[in-house]
Amino acid sequence: PSQCLNNGLCLPSTYSNGTLGYQCICTAPYTGQICSTYLSIICGNTSCLNGGTCLMNGDRTICQCSSLFTGTRCESLNNACDSHPCVNGGTCYSTGGMGRKKRQTTVPLGYFCQCPTTYTGGRCETYLSLCGSNPCRNNGTCYQDSTANRIYCMCLPTYTGTFCDTPTNGTNICTRNPSVCVNGGTCRVNSSLAQGFSCACMPTTTGLYCEQPLDLCSIYPTPCLNNGTCISSLSGYMCLCSVGFTGTNCS
Question: List the disulfide bonds (predicted).
Answer without folding.
Answer: 26-35, 65-74, 115-124, 136-153, 155-164, 201-210, 241-250
